[in-house]
Amino acid sequence: MLTVQDITLHSDIAGLPKDSLVNICIDLEIPSEGYTGELVDRIWSKISGSCAQKVALSPYKNRLLCGRTSVTWYRLSEQGALNGSKDRIISACSFNPFNTMNIPEKTTLTSVPVIIGASQGEVETQYYLRFMFKSGVSKSYYANDVVLMPITSVVTVFVDELHNLIEVRTEHRAAAKVAHAFAQAIGKQILLEPIQVLAPFGGAVEEIATKLNGYLIESLSKPEKLFDEFTKEQANSLVNIMSALDEYFQNEDVDKLRTDLSEARYSFGSEFGAPFTALVLSGLDKMNIGVSGRDLRGHPLYDALKPYLQHQGGYIEFDCNEDLLSSKYKIRVGLKTNSIEFLTPATENVLNFVRENVIL
Fold it and tell me: Based on the structure, what is the number of domains in the chain?
């Protein structure tokens, strides 16, 4: 049966940190100097198609199918629908992907994802599938000639039969297509339901930060809309109010401040009964609030504005133990994309940590 190392491709090795690439070169007794791309090419030339691939990549198997990726989760509507799915996948393929890698010819590859290999996970009820598909076409010019070259993508799907869950590791626009290909591969007429990442937390990304024992370092929000149309006159009135406040702090003329505020409020009519902060934010389309090196929660400005904002996602930083050391990871949680993007290259350990605390 194939291992994670066996279903690793040239592009996966390119995602490893440079210090790991240097160590692999040293272990393989090949030159370890040069740029990252040079190291990757040397390693692949040495191990590709040989038993050395499994041995050389073994210490890094928890990083090979992860990296800097977006993750979208799906749950099958029918409980227990994944039981025996490995056997159904083998029957549906023209080869056994758990025993053999099968890269299709370039001319036969289409935009429909196909399975090229698979590997058992850490436990019997978990496994990995690798899908390949044509994701675009690049264009280059040579004098008056146009050269078209297909762009291919390889996507990893992690399957957890016990929890009726699949994890698609790719950018969110391609995730649904790969999930659909998986459903067809297992031969089940069932509904794959995308798991709404923020829904169990009331749409509050800060609650996910709490579950991960991390920090909310940036909030992506949409202000509450108090008006169907925010007029130019209303916007000017808000500017006049803020200018009046600035002027008061300079000359402390209370009477002038009172006059300026009274004149500005009339353009809003009855709407001025809303909090002034909400009126200011209502003129905006988006708002990003971020801090460095601390938690955004408890920050006076964020706490003041939060009641008038609709969460659209945010950035979280948290710690996770990796090889007996605590490492920092940064993720982006998106409401519209319904995914979690790892801005710090992920490992199987940190993916499992997020999965257990946020999804299961």
Answer: 4
